[in-house]
Amino acid sequence: MTLPRWLLAGLLLCSGLQAAELRVCQHDASRYAYRLELIRLILERTTATHGELHVAAAHGVDPPQERCLAQLRAGMVDLAYVPPNAERLRDLRMIPFDLHAGMLGYRLLLIHREDAPSFARVQSLDDLRLLRGGFGSQWSDFPLFALNRLPVVGSSHPENLLAMLTERRFDYYHRALHEAWEEVGDHPERHPELMIEPGLALVYPLPVYFAFNRAEPELRQRFEEGLSLIQADGSFRELFLRHFGEQLRRSQLSQRRLLILQSDLPEGLPAADSRFWLQP
Fold first, then answer.
1. Fewest CB atoms within 10 A around its CB: which of 112, 172, 190, 228?
2. Furthest-apart CA pair in the chain: how many Å?
3. All structural domains of the chain
4. 3-state secondary structure at position 25
5. Mind listing the pLDDT tens digit for each residue in 140-185?
6. What Cα–Cα distance (Å) separates residue 116 from each residue in 7, 33, 121?
7. Are the C-beta atoms of 76 and 88 separated by less than 8 Å?
8. Signal sequence span per UniProt (predicted)?
């Protein structure tokens, strides 16, 4: 006898053959390996209290950030990770915990090798304003250039920025510590004309929060509990340093001139706890 489709689906669900899945918007493992591993660690630590939940298999290419957030609002995905702003804090359920512990706010400059003497003379933001940066025009921190009166060339195709820097369309391209090493520092053969500037770093707050649809308060609560657990048992620190510890060491932030940028973040957000990796 052939069972009705609705009855078969119910039997499969009750028998546990269909595991619950968490739909994550940004699932590119090459780009988001750390964040995806962090999600899996949280789910593992909370299985006993909240049940089995697994990250759904990736399908297709990651959408742009704003489309991803639209999918989250519509309930098409369950989780995203994005920098906060006033609109996102109002419309979504966000956990005010920086997944990168403040690290993304420390930015190294990628420059043309021949321009190293010019950057060695930069002592202040006023000096940097004599040079021109390049950046992704759709990225959430792009408006900081205008806010800090820094000349910039914006590109809606950020995959072209390294080539544009090589062609001298602008003077520098600032990247997070791990990005700078992955894109240029560890692979000089890819862009032999470029280098990581050795004496400067830009600094501004750039937290990344877990974001959930407002219709899923239980999921947000589960992640809050999981974050508390992995901070308390040291596994968050272990995961972070396993992914970024070597790049942090090589960046030698304590020996760089730090240029502090004004930020446009909403007021009242908690400061990231960077004490376990940021050496004074």
1. 190
2. 82
3. 20-101+207-233 (3.40.190.10), 103-203 (3.40.190.10)
4. coil
5. 899 999 999 999 999 999 999 999 999 999 999 999 999 999 999 8
6. 69, 32, 9
7. no
8. 1-19
